[in-house]
Amino acid sequence: MERSSGSMFARSQVSMSTVNHSALATNKIGEYAELGAVTRDMVKTDEPEFLRVLEGRAKENEGKLKFVDISKAEKEVEVKELKTLSEAIEGVKEKFPGLIHMRVPVCNSAAPLEADFDIMCQTLVGASINTPVIINDQVGLSRATTASVVACLFKDFQINASFEGLVETVPGVNLDLLKMDRYTMDPAKDPLFRGEFEVVKTLV
Predict the structure, then answer these.
(1) Disulfide engineering: 143 pairs with which of 8, 79, 116, 197, CB 3.0-4.6 Å?
(2) Which of 96, 71, 82 minimizes the C-alpha distance to 49?
(3) Judging by DSSP bridges, how do beta strands 64-68 and 19-22 pair with one another?
(4) What angle do CA 126, 6, 43 make, to 5 degrees?
(5) Backbone φ and ψ of 18, nearest 5°
(6) Residue 170, C-beta contacts closer than 8 angstroms, at least 6 positions apart
(7) How far apart are CA 140 and CA 191, in angstroms?
(8) Would you give the DSSP letter of residue 189?
């Protein structure tokens, strides 16, 4: 894996076993949160302090931490090991040399800043056309979707550029030979091609 873009975490993260937790007011769990001018460097700087706070709370509570899940239910877990997200990613990099992790703090359910799109694109620049891109956010809704669209558009540009490069470097190439996709859409066979989606029809 040469290059990977992703992890759109908005707040400091600490991994507890296989569970990620973030610092957020209990009455704001799963709700819209306005971040303001937050940068990845600011989030990374806050991680060690968040880790120290959790370590202190676990020590005061006999090695256990209380938290609120996405359903706003209070729970308690026994702490085996605490790691910041940055530390967890460094461990992954040891298994996958060449992995590049880029954190983009994007507000949930709000339009990303122009700088956020620049970061995503700059992270993908230089990646080969077949490089996998892994995208992750805490909830897996709007931010992951936005990043997926950006990655797909970037890959589409890469494919088109590679095709044009092939045409330009091969003298006398027959373009018809390169057009291997001769599929003709038949709307009568597939309702999806007609824009008829069962889930939408059910809702209507």
Answers:
(1) 8
(2) 82
(3) unpaired
(4) 115
(5) -110, 20
(6) none
(7) 28
(8) T
